[in-house]
Each structure stands twice: as structure tokens, then as C-alpha cells.
Amino acid sequence: MMETESLSVVIVGGSAGLGKVIAYRYLKDGFRVVIISRNKPGFVDLNNAFSHYSEDLSSITAERAHELAYRITQNTGRPSYLVFCQRYRGAERSLAAELLVGVTATEMLVEALIPHFAEDGDRAIIAVTSVYADFVGSSQPSSYHIVKAGLNALIRYYAVKLGANGIRSNAIAPLTYLKDESKHVYLNNESTLAKYKRLVPLQRMPLAEECANVIRFLGSEQAAFVTGQVVYVDGGVSAIWPEELA
Fold first, then answer.
1. How far is CA 87 from the centre of its chain?
2. Can you give the pLDDT of all 246 residues of the chain as single tens digits?
3. Residue 119 CB partners (closer than 8 Å, separation 6+)
4. Cα–Cα dist 171/126, whole Å
């Protein structure tokens, strides 16, 4: 592994769930971690290597994104990695609002932060999308499917646009995973666990930590020639022909 003492990562939407797990992982590996989210994470930073910028992505502007990028660079230095795991949390389901949080805010922050990226070494953008970018699931509305598909397209676009600069761009598309905030709902429901055991070739649900491991791989020199990819973290479900599932 490369020397991480002076490296930093910016995580958008890292106050809870998978984002929080990702932040812990990078802190453990010696990175300085910057989190952009509405609420400050409730974990203890023993290494004094964590900083937080409060931002409501549903109202972010390009000007605001550039201000954030400048402040982050001045306070923490040039980032090597940029991770997006935000999600629209508004009470009202709105395609416009979900697009702003999931796609437009991502594009604004990439455009603002890329000029401030580290000038050398391994550098990458990683986004958390969903299997619903390619498949239809009744548990989510049309807006969620559209936003995740758009985010995949944006990630591929930046893989091509930024490739000449040595900056990689990838995404992960996870199955429903177990995270601290909601895993008790699944673990206490035997019928749901049995359904996933029948459905998933690996016969279980993934952990948030396992998704974070793939993100950490994509945000490391170990993935130095991987770009423009959407990596499924689904235990093999996407490999099964739908007729077989039926």
C-alpha cells in the first residue's frame, strides 16, 4: 500500500450508514477524512484526522460547491479520493429534488473539487449507486431508478473525461445491505432472511463493511487500472436468469 500519512479523502453523505463505515475505514488506514453532509457524524475521531462541512445538497449551487472545495483544500490539503454515498431524504418524493441531490450535486462537487485534487499519486472518484440503475424493483419509485442510472452514466463520463489526468472513476451497485441503523429489522425477520438465502447465491445479505471494502479497493492504488466500471456487490444475484428466479 502507498504511504497515506498525507493523503485525504472527501466523503459526501458520510454521517451515517455506509458512508460512516467508509469514513472509519479510511481513518483506520491513516487518511485525513473530510465529510460533507447535513448532520455531523456521531463517532469519535481518535486521530484528530476528521473534519465536517455541513451542507444541504438539495439547495447546493455551483458557487457554493466551489467555496466548499476551496475551504477543504485550505484546511485539509488536496484530496486523493472523492466518494459519493449521499441519498435524497426528503419527505416528498420528487424527481427534481432527487436528481439535484443524487446527480446534479455530484456533478457540481466533482467539477469544483477536481481542480483541487492531488497533483500526483493514485486518485479516484467512487460513487455508490444501486442495482436499480439497471433493474426494476418495486420497493423504490421511478425517481430512484432514474437517479441511480444517471449517476452510473455520470461516473462513466468522468472515467473518459478525466482519464488523461490519471483520475479514475468507478461505482459500486450493492444489493440491500445490513447497516447498523437498520440491520435489526432484517435480522429479526426470519422469513426475510430465508428469502435472501434462497435468492442470493452466497445465501445471505451483504454487510455495509463488505461494501466499504470494495469502495476502499477502488479508492486505492490496488485498482490503478480500473476505471469506468460499475461493480455489483450483490452476492451473485445479477448472474441469475430471471426465469430461474421465478
1. 9
2. 444 457 999 999 988 889 999 999 999 999 999 999 988 877 666 567 889 999 999 999 999 999 999 999 999 999 999 999 998 887 777 899 999 999 999 999 999 999 999 999 999 999 999 999 999 988 889 999 999 999 999 999 999 999 999 999 999 999 988 888 888 888 889 998 999 999 999 999 899 999 999 999 999 999 999 999 999 999 999 999 888 888
3. 78
4. 5
Per the structure block, which three cell numbers stand in for 80? 486523493
d(CA 208, CA 25): 11
Local structure of 131: helix, strand or coil: helix
> Would you give the end-to-end CA distance of the chain in angstroms?
44
CATH superfamily assigned to domain 8-176+206-241: NAD(P)-binding Rossmann-like Domain (3.40.50.720)
- The alpha helices in 77-141, defined as continuous H runs, are 95-99, 105-113
pTM, rounded to two decimals: 0.93
**CA–CA gap between residue 180 and residue 196 (Å, rounded):** 19
> Can you give the residue ranges of every domain in the chain?
8-176+206-241
DSSP-based three-state secondary structure for 80: coil
